[in-house]
Specification:
Cobalt-precorrin-4 Transmethylase, domain 1; five-stranded parallel β-sheet; 9 helices; single chain; 16% strand; five-stranded mixed β-sheet; transferase; Tetrapyrrole methylase domain-containing protein; cobalamin biosynthesis; 336 residues; alpha/beta
Amino acid sequence: MRGAVSFVGAGPGAADLITLRGAARIAEADLVLYTPSAVDPLWLREHTRADADLVDHARLGADELAELLRRLASRHHRAVRLVAGDPAHCPDLREQRELCARLGLDTEVVPGVSPVSAAAAATGNALVETAGADTVVLTEADFERVRELAADGRTVAVQAPAARAAELVEALLAAGLDPEVPVVVAHKVSWADETLLRTTVGELVAEVKRANLWRHALFLVGDALRQAKPRAGYAPRETETGKRWTSRSWRSTGTWSRRSFPEPDPVVAEPEPDDVDLAADAPVERAVDAAEPVRVESVPEVPVASRPDPVVKRPAVTKKQPARTARSGARRGAKK
């Protein structure tokens, strides 16, 4: 049996956000490497074995850490190294695993809840959304890198000292972000004394000073963090800039192009029969503008067999009938 090291995600800080697998590895370990900024030492002491060693690895140098792992391998013991948040965001994870492999130690990675996810959950927002932000970028306090990464349709998570908020704002504005883009500032999220601020790029510096924040914090920047959302299913397009849609009609505060929506041809009212001079032999013609194209509509010819019989009107009788008198009526009665 060889010794083993488990890299366990300690989550954002709250002990109950450590996974069940991570808690099981902590309870079984002979050695636990931790930092007070990642997990509460009092909770850790209550959930480890009585004979387990707890070591703050932030106080160890590289050589001291290597010697500690070498003794662990020789005794075939099991160790846990607690990583703040999620080990997937730990920049030296590969280096630590390669060191363990050279010393003959097996390694395991137990995922955890990242502070970025915890901060977004505390605001009730997702970092990406349909027809909105589709990318999440994580970076440290490299503001030149922030200037390259920040863009519309993207959520940026920046780990930086709150005292450098002015530099962050300068980088975001230089990237072309609007001052009204939302920003969430999270300090010790999920801890009992957490600080969570909702503000905008333009008001970020003033809000950070008002909250008296200057230590390391997490800044979430992006439109997905807005409290008020647009109508569900509506995604503005480039051709719809400046337009406002309502549920009753399609209205716009901008200007429509008549090429996209041509107006129908004007309807010319035909003259009523009473207005036509029937005595005139010449047909009535409508004046046609020379610029107006003449449309010729073809009428399909109806076969002779299917044509209806013409209606023949009999000429009116013009012979004057004799007046009927009482004598003629009496004469016809005598003949009968």
